[in-house]
Specification:
Four Helix Bundle (Hemerythrin (Met), subunit A); isomerase; isomerase activity; DinB/YfiT-like; two-stranded antiparallel ribbon; mainly alpha; 206 residues; Maleylpyruvate isomerase N-terminal domain-containing protein; 6% strand
Length: 206
Amino acid sequence: MPDPAALFADAAATVADLLDRVAPDAWDGPGLGAWDLRALVGHTSRSLVTVITYLDGPAVEERVGSAAEYYALIKTGTIPGTADPEAIVERGRRAGAQLGDDPAAAFRALIGPATAKVAEVGPDTVVETIAGGMRVDRYLTTRTFELVVHGLDIAAATGGEVVFAPGVLSEALGMSAEVAVRLGEGEAVLLALTGRRPLPAGFCVV
């Protein structure tokens, strides 16, 4: 079975390699939606920052049993504040500003502390997240997903190329399908993947 910690580290390194190729004058250019590239990368860096900070906070009990449940709770608005678009945009902008004058180097510098923290606490430790207590290995799957999706966003914004390892892509895609099932959209996704019926415009599981 794939190791969530190894997949997380692999995804982070792949994004860091992509950022190393970003032109110096691109950081204030288009990123995604209301974000410029710096804010998009800042938001992506939170996949590392939250691992460093959350893993310092052991939870009293496990309340979220999987990465798919985590995203389903957020998507359905069950967790107050997590679905506020303006708040999400602002957090990305603040995170981008915190990366300083060399966002690529700052992003790469976060990988070591994040992976070290994962090794320190172990996969079965229950930590507090915005959705409630989760085991580390399950929370890491959400972070790998964020790195993959936003890594692809960054590549699209910059015209760069990013190639994630097959195992990393499989984990992200598999979790997306699980979220779709939890949201009652599993059949729609399966029909689209098998060429039977296109997904509706704007369809999104996260």
